[in-house]
Fold this sequence. Notes:
The chain is built from 15 helices and 19 strands. The chain is of the alpha/beta class. It starts with a strand and ends with a helix. Zinc ion (ZN) binds near residues 308, 312, 314 and 317. Zinc ion binds near residues 314, 317 and 359.
Amino acid sequence: MLTFQLLKTEGHARRGVLTLNHGVVQTPIFMPVGTYGTVKGVMPRSLHDMGAQIILGNTFHLWMRPGLDVMRAFGGLHGFEQWHKPILTDSGGFQVWSLGAMRKITEEGVHFASPVNGDKLFMSPEVSMQIQTVLNSDIVMQLDECTPYWQGDKASGHVTTEAEARASMALSLRWARRSKAEFERLGNPNALFGIVQGGMFEHLRQESLEALVDMDFPGYAIGGVSVGEPKEEMRRIMAHTPHRLPAHKPRYLMGVGTPEDLVEGVACGVDMFDCVMPTRNARNGTIFTRYGDLKLRNARHKADPQPLDPTCTCYACAGASGVSWADGGRDGFSRAYLHHLDRCGEMLGPMLTTIHNLHYYLNLMQEVRDALDAGTFAAFRQRFAAERARGV
Ligand SMILES: [Zn+2]
């Protein structure tokens, strides 16, 4: 089941409510990535506290481990990982594609060797639908071929040509039809999204989206961005495609991006985002704050009593009281302490920085929703850019 209610628009930007089998999602929304059935280092309770409404799971990795028999025994991913709000699963296509030389793509599907034990395996639109039906995710993604920006590696390869992008996009459309047919045959009660491809070519994106709209999916994703292209190429596609999709259906921009990309994406008409950046960067000591990015490993933080972001109310910055440093709260953890934990390789370090970075992304989207509710998104965009440029 999926219903999408459009509450308000400002330019291409949209404020909406998405209702799924496991709950209601206020959009625009950022979805934390939970690859192996866990958002790395974060308890579901913390996700709940920081306002996460929907998280991702990874079809390919969960198929490899623990496998479908275990998933079936738990009635799907929600019961297994004890997260009872909505879940979106990807199709597994991106991971299979990432195997490089270890896989072979044919019309029928993708043959590959398991990276876990070397077993010969086969992924097809039908197999992806079967796995995602067992996972019982609220949003299921069609199997697509994620068209890369580079064919081969950057040193010896070439930028994908129009002919290559067209062939890849056409394959994804045929797989979209097969995904939909299998999803319906299985009687999956959730919602299947089609994925727009077409590389960096607007006219191919247009062809792809028109064919997918004819197939009448309950929601649409824009794939094949954040695949190694320069930032301005990504922004060009982001400006082209989202607002051309049906207004009454949710739009999901896959794998993007920085806080700036999210705000620009909303301005282009995107409703849903996911990215590993807040979680991965947290583990590498790169912290997102209202006033720009902070490098925790920098020696200047060694004795700094301030929290990561003085305006933040997350557990890392404001402790159990939830009162930010700027509002007089002093229960949070200092930059000095988090710098120390990182230097010592202590587990608590990345746990706290991950809570902060995810809270930052989720709170940013809350501020975006508030601005859209108030009809002040244009002013918000300017203030956001000025604050981020100020520096920490
Ligand atoms: Zn924080």
